[in-house]
Amino acid sequence: MELRGKTIAVLGGKTGLLGQALVKALTAAKAKPKPLSSKDCDIVDPGSVERVLNKIDPDVLINAAAYTQVDLAEEQEEVAFALNATAPPLLAAAAARRGIPFLHYSTDFVFSGNRTTPYTVYDNPGAFSVYGISKAEGEKNLIALGYDGTLIIRTSWLFGPDKMNFVKKIITLATERNTLKVVDDQTGSPSYTPDVAANSIKLLEKDATGIFHLANSGTATWFDLASEAVRLAGLPCTVEPIPTSGYPTPAVRPAYSVLDLTRFIQTTGETPRHWKDALKEYINQEKDS
Ligand SMILES: NC(=O)c1ccc[n+]([C@@H]2O[C@H](COP(=O)([O-])OP(=O)(O)OC[C@H]3O[C@@H](n4cnc5c(N)ncnc54)[C@H](OP(=O)(O)O)[C@@H]3O)[C@@H](O)[C@H]2O)c1
């Protein structure tokens, strides 16, 4: 589908880390994004979704809204499941009634992490955390609904402008402290939100449906990502590796959740740039602002 001139409803587009990047990328692609917050449209309320979609009359519906507080989800199971598991099929059904594409985002945290080779789109979820289980349930519900205009993009370890994220947190802490201890036994795929957004548009333009994995190329531990960010920012802070046991959190995160990008590369003919190149662009832009 050619997106130029198309009206695109972006849930999470006003305040979300990825949603805001999507709105910028869609604007750059000459589409007409309609960013929506929870105040404009509550995704757990079908009446609210219908009213907003009737008003906007979009050509594409994108769901970048979710419950994303991984640790808090352990004690807020009900709200996590309402947003991440129950809402997605309601949104897909609304898109199906209109015959428009539905793009939904999921996460590497749907995987258990009990392996050391990249997860393909054919691998089965097996999350340990409430957040991961709720996101996997959302995927399962979308597949059960069976709307063939559904595209599910699993992404991971997001960093980018306009909202607090891991890299921004590290840079802030590194300006205040001489040393930082960061977990070095969880490995994943860092992803720059402007790259994920631009590459999501490439999939929509190819009329892709089903499950795709989308991240930057390369793998890292949180320690690798933090060290590179501090180095690029030129801050005099020492980053030290620690095991997960040295930084206990309520939610169990996968020890390994690298995403295999083969399906994206084969479908679009493009390979996402390395996360280190994307991180350099992000840090330089943050320095300038
Ligand atoms: N962040 C990551 O590292 C990461 C990694 C892998 C996958 N993902 C996935 O990528 C997607 C985007 O994540 P993100 O980090 O960009 O999320 P985020 O910054 O936490 O934003 C979540 C968005 O959801 C909206 N929202 C919350 N409750 C809502 C409701 N009831 N109705 C409508 N909107 C509601 C929020 O809007 P309000 O401010 O108006 O409430 C906010 O804009 C999610 O599916 C997430 O699971 C994220």
In short:
With 289 residues, this protein is α/β, with parallel strands linked by helices.
Could you describe the 3D structure shown?
With 289 residues, this protein is α/β, with parallel strands linked by helices. It has a single domain (7-164, 190-218, 256-273), classed as Rossmann fold (3-Layer(aba) Sandwich), CATH 3.40.50. Helices cover 41% and strands 17% of the residues. The protein is built from 9 helices and 12 strands. It has helices at residues 17-28, 46-56, 77-98, 130-145, 166-176, 193-205, 222-233, 262-268, 275-288, and strands spanning 7-11, 32-36, 60-63, 102-107, 150-155, 158-159, 179-183, 187-188, 191-192, 210-213, 220-221, 238-242. Helix 3 (77-98) packs parallel to helix 4 (130-145). The chain binds NADP nicotinamide-adenine-dinucleotide phosphate.
Labels describing this entry:
single chain; 289 residues; alpha/beta; Rossmann fold; six-stranded parallel β-sheet; two-stranded parallel sheet; 9 helices; 12 strands; 41% helix; binds NADP nicotinamide-adenine-dinucleotide phosphate
Major sheet: arrangement of strands: 2-1-3-4-5-10
N-to-C terminal Cα separation, in Å? 35 Å
SSE sequence, one letter per element:
EHEHEHEHEEHEEEHEEHEHH
Reported by name, the CATH topology is: Rossmann fold
Structural class: alpha/beta
Helix residue percentage: 40-55%
Bound molecules: NADP nicotinamide-adenine-dinucleotide phosphate
Mean pLDDT: 98
Keywords: NADP, Oxidoreductase
GO molecular function: dTDP-4-dehydrorhamnose reductase activity
Catalytic activity: dTDP-beta-L-rhamnose + NADP(+) = dTDP-4-dehydro-beta-L-rhamnose + NADPH + H(+)
Pfam family, one: RmlD_sub_bind
